[in-house]
Amino acid sequence: MSDKNNQTEIIKTGTILFLITAVAAFALAIVNSVTAPVIEGNNAKKQAAAMKNVLKDAAEFSQLTLDSQIDKSVSAIYSAKNAQGDLVGVCVSVTSSGYGGDIDMIVGVSTDKKVTGVDIISQSETAGLGTKAAEPAFKDQYIGKGKIDKVVKSGAKENEIDAISGATITSKAVTKGVNTAVSAAEEVLAKEALK
Asked: What is the pLDDT of residue 2?
């Protein structure tokens, strides 16, 4: 086979591969344009349900502007008001790095700076171990507490949390996220009190 035939064959193969790639990219763009708004809407519904779940006294949530001093793992803070328009707390959307990746959660904090609830929005922790962080037996330990001093194996005291057996990294990651949320809430609530 001559060099000219080789070059022609290479150009022909390259052109076919380019066309296949272009068609695949176009198809993916079409699918993304259809599914992206649906995914975004589902995520918004999931977040709204999580906020209502962690601050049950709230009837209305309003997103606040994030202060530059707030930890970068906090993606959003919402003031929460009851039906009479009184501030009952804040909901903090925060991400912490767990064993299997990011753990996205919503943490409710009352005006007295105590956790009212924790809802895990998404996580990729080990099934049967780290995924237990989303179960009430673990996450409800934070309710009524402020910042957590320590994660222990068992027998947690006032400002401590019992770790999930076999998932200490996940337990510490959720605790770090909750502590970050409480700090952010304290800052926001202090400013709200000055208004």
From this structure: 65
Residue 97 lies in a domain: yes
Q: What is the pLDDT of residue 114?
A: 96
Residue 42: both structure tokens together: 């589902």
Residue in the block written with tokens 């202090």:
190
Q: Is residue 69 part of a domain?
A: yes
In a domain, 21, yes or no: no
Calpha distance 151→129 (Å, rounded): 16
Predicted pLDDT at 193: 60
| Number of separate domains in the chain | 1
Q: Average pLDDT across each block of 10 residues of the chain; the chain has 195 residues. List them in order.
A: 77 91 90 80 81 91 84 91 93 94 95 95 90 93 93 89 92 96 90 64
pTM attached to this predicted model: 0.78
Q: Looking at the domain assignment, is residue 40 inside a domain? A: no
Residue span of the structural domain in which 176 resides: 51-194
